[in-house]
Design a protein that fits this description.
seven-stranded mixed β-sheet, HAD_sf, alpha/beta, Rossmann fold, 12 helices, 11 strands, 2 domains
Length: 281
Amino acid sequence: MRLVVQGPAISMAHLTHIHGLIGGYTQFVQIAEHAYYLPVAENEYVEVKAFCAAQQIDCALVADAHRLQKMGLCVMDMDSTLISIECIDEIADMMNLKPQVAEITEAAMRGELDFSASLRKRVALLKGLPETALQRVIDERLKFNPGVQHWIELCKQQGIKTMVVSGGFTVFANYVKQTLGLDYAVSNTLEIMDGKLTGQILGDIVDAQRKADELIKLRDRLGLTARQTIAIGDGANDLKMMAAAEVGVAYHAKPVVQQQARYALNIVGLDGVANLLMISV
């Protein structure tokens, strides 16, 4: 195992304290500007985790087998994972409905509501909105999360295929795919007639099971094994996808997701995934 600690607040004093909690003779090795690892024996390290949480430091016990060069596919959620917004909430804001829609979105991401039913309910509220509002969301509000471009570039360098699988909408997923240079994108399609949203979704909804199915389908098509897959998400509808992957990473995620994911990042950006799966010892 290796203990990976990372975050902009990390200092030598922090590393010294963590080392004292663990004991042993090996020293921390720096792997990035604000990231370090320490070879450790398998253990819970409860005190270390509690200390890191209190000091705003991301901490993870990473299996030695989890290395970037062993991976072949990374599947990622979009809203609040690759990008900083929930697109449907921002669309709703164009109709002065953001509080109502955001409340439903938040409950769905916590796993308190059925995702498909809640999505249909939210989309129905958007009936009559001009199609041009979707482009406004892209132009005015869509921002990528910290470290995204670094992480995607690293995947490309390692020959890892990348896919965004989103319970959001095609217009945004295709923009994210094109901008970041991802290999694949799967998402929902809003029905538009006469330049306006009808309040309906075309085809089957991309829900939790569909996300997992898309990962498995692409994995098999690429001739990869489950051990060569990474999944990154933040909401309850990402849990099945993350469970289908060898490496599941909860990124600034809801509590239910952090509890079930193999690894969790709460402080650093998506470039922190690279530090978890560092290439060389």
